[in-house]
From TrEMBL:
Catalytic residue positions: 50
Name assigned to this protein: 2,5-diketo-D-gluconate reductase A
NADP-dependent oxidoreductase domain ranges (all copies): 18-260
This protein's record includes keyword NADP: yes
Site residues (Lowers pKa of active site Tyr), renumbered to this chain: 75
Family: Belongs to the aldo/keto reductase family.
Protein keywords: NADP, Oxidoreductase
Species name: Nesterenkonia xinjiangensis
Pfam families: Aldo_ket_red
Catalytic activity, EC: 1.1.1.346
One term of GO molecular function: oxidoreductase activity, acting on the CH-OH group of donors, NAD or NADP as acceptor
Residues the entry annotates as binding substrate: 108
Listed transmembrane segments: none
Length: 273
């Protein structure tokens, strides 16, 4: 299966579709990531706070897949926000992953109450300069946070990873990303499994003979977003990847757009710290 890539403003390419491992227990991470790699996923999204970087790293090492064919993302947790702290945290993550660099390193939340995300960003600029991460980006940033990073100058985020699914479509933040030339990654793209009984999703699934999860994945892909749904079930890991043989119609996409209800599942980035 040829997964499309998205070209980022630093000139690199990222596979548009990958595998996420939030809430995958440390003891399961090696098994599920090994399964994902076997099925064909080449883009893995983890984070220091997920506590499973070692398992991800073991699966990568055991796979024998050449490093340049893989795209690995991890994230800097807010307790390590600071220029020197970021560098130390990156080194810890690399050690756990068993890698000499990641493809993408993100600041995990802006945590505006502590006002340290600009210092953390300077840390990521250093990390990119040193080649420890090829690309750098942010997660859960709002337009105002992106504007301040732009004012700071220097290397700019290529990605903003935010909560996006049919119940929360984030038009405002996506417009802010586009203003800065930043690509959008959708986290909890399947609304953590809560969107599968909705009528437009069920109707499209029946029309194409696919699962509701596959429909929601296509809804993201056809709008150009990067996503990495999570599953710990072999059969779902495989079927979620089997999404490149059908296309939703404009009417089906629009009907799913109609599910918007400001339905945030995670914390509000303006308040979380
Ligand atoms: P998701 O929307 O990918 O949903 C995952 C859940 O959906 C599974 O646990 C399972 O219950 C269900 N599911 C998956 N495939 C299914 C299928 N084929 N059939 C039926 N049910 C199925 O949720 P997520 O894990 O929160 O988000 C994906 C990834 O996004 C995470 O693993 C993580 O990598 C990233 N993420 C990032 C942040 C952040 O702050 N940056 C926050 C949350 C998640």
């Amino acid at each position: 299966t040829a997964v499309p890539t998205v070209t980022l403003h630093d000139g690199t390419e990222i596979p548009q579709f990958g595998f996420g491992v939030w809430q995958v227990p440390a003891d399961d991470a090696e098994r599920v990531v090994a399964k994902a790699l076997e099925v064909g996923y080449r883009h893995i999204d983890t984070a220091a706070i997920y506590g499973n970087e070692e398992g991800v790293g073991r699966a990568i090492a055991a796979s024998g897949i050449p490093r340049e064919e893989l795209y690995v993302t991890t994230k800097l947790w807010v307790s390590d926000f600071g220029r020197a702290e970021a560098k130390a945290a990156m080194e810890t993550s690399l050690q756990k992953l068993g890698l000499d660099h990641v493809d993408l390193y993100l600041t995990h939340w802006p945590a505006p109450a502590t006002d340290k995300y600009l210092e953390a960003w300077q840390g990521l600029q250093d990390i990119a300069e040193q080649g420890l991460s090829t690309s750098i980006g942010v997660s859960n940033h709002l337009g105002e946070h992106l504007d301040r990073i732009a004012e700071l100058g220097g290397r700019q985020p290529v990605i903003n990873q935010i909560e996006v699914h049919p119940f929360l479509q984030q038009r405002e933040v996506i417009a802010a990303n586009e203003k800065h030339g930043i690509a959008t990654q959708a986290w909890s793209p399947l609304a953590q499994g809560q969107v599968f009984d909705e009528a437009p999703v069920v109707a499209a699934a029946e029309a194409h003979g696919v699962s509701p999860a596959q429909v929601v994945i296509r809804w993201h892909l056809q709008q150009g977003r990067i996503l990495f749904p999570k599953s710990v079930t072999d059969e779902r890991i495989a079927s979620n990847f089997d999404v490149f043989g059908f296309e939703l119609t404009a009417e089906e996409l629009a009907a799913i757009d109609g599910l918007e209800k400001d339905g945030r599942l995670g914390p509000n980035p303006a308040e979380f710290s």
